[in-house]
Design goal:
Radius of gyration of chain B: 21 Å
Largest sheet of chain B: 2 strands, antiparallel
Structural class of chain B: mainly alpha
CATH class of the largest domain in chain A: Alpha Beta
Number of helices of chain A: 9
Number of strands of chain A: 10
Distance between the termini of chain B: 23 Å
CATH topology of the largest domain in chain A: Rossmann fold
Order of helices and strands of chain A: EEEHEEHEHHHEHEHEEHH
Shape of chain A: globular
Strand order of the largest sheet of chain B: 1-2
Shape of chain B: globular
CATH superfamily of the largest domain in chain A: P-loop containing nucleotide triphosphate hydrolases
Distance between the termini of chain A: 34 Å
Oligomer: heterodimer
Helix content of chain A: 25-40%
Largest interface: A-B, 56 and 41 residues
Chain lengths: ~240, ~350
């Protein structure tokens, strides 16, 4: 479904992505791990078009996204959440999600209302529907990120540390939502540090370090990989 | 503020708005000619402020060259009505069309720039157009030219009649700009623009066509600015480059109005225009000091609340007086006040 071929991106002398190759199969849940500064969020930024890579290609369903604009990538089926929630603060929760549904989902206002309701219901946020988005607590901001992303009706959902900062109970709620989305056939790529959350749904893991994928495979295989222990978990864990 | 008090304040605001609109409708029968002239100017400036707010406040195109389109509208109206001898009432919409046509190449130039560069670029384009207008000998060159009496009389044989006619034109232009822009903001386009206002990158990621909406806003504003230019020409009864393309009158004052009233809100330009005229009416006798007061006031408002006076008031209200938002379909109507920033809560 998604193919990243030789992706490189540097900011001045700093190489953030360095010839990265990665393939995501349709219907899988891929967990992406990596220490801080490994280039995980930048990778998402390149996929959705916030940054243009210095080299390499992003293929989505066989289509080279090339110079395709951010909004267009959303409309062809790529949704994402942000690590630090970015609500449209002065809009209501409902209008936040409605915006995604009518613009990202390409729906009319009437259809978008129904889609927004469904997305809010999936994300467990209907109790906040009329509130100002900027006033939500953290868990609900994360739910709003998710609702906005799924209201775009993506086939590929990119989640950026959506479980970070949540309690175990809140994390379980979130996992339930993600399992349900996956059950509906959505392909998910999930950057996360909360290992137990990731292992709860990911069928495959990829570890990013220094702008490259250094290990990929089943969660058990990746977590047993000595390179992962050395670079990501530390020598002591080996 | 309690929910019931907030709702009461909202309805008081709406009542004040209807009362203001009613006074404007009845103005020709209520006020003297000098007051009608002042109200005509008010309506023209309100139209320009609504458009700058749309372009800068929502679409994030911080142009300081919108006086270009006021000037183009003024010259186009004069050209059609006086030089081409077309019916002056028809010349008004034609002036809007010319402003729209000019907006296309101007947009092609300045949209290559962003942020401060766009602001400077828009100003340079406006000044260039003003200098070009000064070279048009048929329009009186650099010193400008007055409208012939024969054309002026078409709007009324007597000054009172003429002032009333021009007032109604200004009223129609302002009402059209407000109502149509409100409808625009209530549409899916308005949703996208409000999202851009709150978070440009976030809007792009959920599929809002940033460049498309920017183009639409710019092209939306241009004809209204051209209409305002035609009304201003009718009121001044002449065109001249420094007056028709005045950066102070049609851009600097307008930025003050929108910033002080509340940028990125529908109520802001209305509040700002009222405050601007109150300050100008009551403090103009103190000469240059009234400009200093305007400047200090705008800086003070921005420091306290970047969203202007309306942003300050809005903290205590559950919804807008002129709603552009949609009612949620399920139970759970707005219950929480917009009083604290997201960041302060997100990290609790």
């Amino acid at each position: 479904m998604l193919e990243l071929i030789g992706l490189s991106l540097h900011f001045g002398a700093l190489k953030v992505l360095d010839g990265l190759d990665l393939t995501v199969e349709r219907g899988e849940v891929l967990g992406v791990l990596g220490p801080n500064g490994a280039g995980k969020t930048t990778l998402f930024n390149v996929i959705v078009g916030v940054h243009a890579p210095n080299a390499g290609r992003v293929l989505f369903e066989g289509r080279d996204l090339g110079a395709m604009r951010m909004w267009h990538r959303c409309r062809v089926g790529i949704g994402r959440t942000f690590q630090v929630p970015r609500p449209f603060s002065d809009m209501t929760v409902f209008d936040n999600v409605l915006t995604s549904a009518v613009h990202g989902g390409g729906l009319s206002l009437a259809e978008g209302r129904r889609q927004a309701e469904e997305a809010l219901d999936s994300a467990g946020l209907t109790h906040r529907i009329g509130q100002r988005a900027g006033n939500l607590p953290l868990l609900d901001l994360k739910r709003l990120e998710l609702a906005k992303a799924i209201a775009c009706r993506p086939r590929l959902l990119l989640l950026d540390e959506i479980a970070g900062g949540l309690t175990d109970r809140e994390c379980e709620v979130l996992l339930g939502i993600l399992r349900s989305l996956h059950g509906q056939g959505m392909t998910i790529v999930w950057i996360e540090h909360v290992m137990h959350a990731l292992r709860g749904v990911a069928s495959r893991l990829a570890v990013l370090h220094g702008g490259r994928i250094i290990s990929t495979g089943s969660p058990d295989d990746v977590l047993a990989d000595p390179r992962v222990h050395e670079i990501y978990l530390g020598d002591a864990a080996a | 503020m309690k929910a019931s008090t907030g709702a009461f304040a909202i309805w008081c605001g709406r009542l004040a708005l209807f009362a203001g609109a009613a006074v404007l409708v009845a103005a020709p029968w209520l006020f003297r000619v000098t007051d009608i002239a002042l109200l005509t100017e008010f309506l023209s400036l309100l139209t320009i402020a609504v458009m700058w707010n749309l372009v800068a406040g929502y679409a994030d195109i911080v142009s300081v060259g919108q006086h270009a389109f006021v000037g183009i509208g003024a010259y186009a109206f004069f050209g059609f009505a006086v030089i081409a001898r077309i019916d002056p009432f028809l010349a008004i919409p034609l002036a809007a069309l010319v402003a729209l046509l000019f907006a296309i190449p101007v947009m092609a130039i300045i949209f290559r720039l962003r942020a401060a560069y766009l602001a400077v670029g828009s100003w340079v384009v406006a000044e260039t157009l003003m200098l070009a207008a000064g070279k048009l000998s048929a329009f009186g060159g650099g010193s400008g030219i007055s409208m012939p009496v024969s054309v002026v009389r078409i709007f009324g044989a007597h000054p009172a009649e003429r002032y009333a006619t021009i007032y109604w034109i200004a009223f129609a232009v302002a009402a059209l700009s407000l109502v149509s822009t409100w409808l625009l903001m209530r549409s899916r386009i308005g949703l996208g623009l409000t999202a851009i206002r709150d978070d440009e990158q976030g809007a792009g990621v959920v599929g809002v066509n940033l460049s498309g909406l920017r183009i639409l806003c710019f092209l939306w504003a241009a004809p209204f600015l051209g209409l305002a230019g035609a009304v201003i020409t009718l009121q001044k009864l002449r065109v001249a480059p420094p007056a028709s393309f005045s950066i102070i009158d049609w851009t600097v004052y307008v930025i003050f109005i929108v910033v002080i009233g509340g940028i990125g809100s529908f109520e802001g330009p209305i509040i700002g225009t009222v405050i601007f005229f109150l300050i100008r009416s009551y403090l103009s006798e103190i000469g240059v000091w009234h400009f200093i007061i305007l400047g200090v006031l705008s800086i003070a408002v921005v420091l306290v609340e970047p969203r202007g006076l309306w942003g300050l008031v809005r903290r205590f209200l559950p919804e807008d007086v002129i709603p552009i938002t949609r009612r949620p379909p399920l139970p759970g109507r707005p219950t929480e006040q917009a009083s604290r920033p997201a960041e302060s809560i997100a990290h609790e």
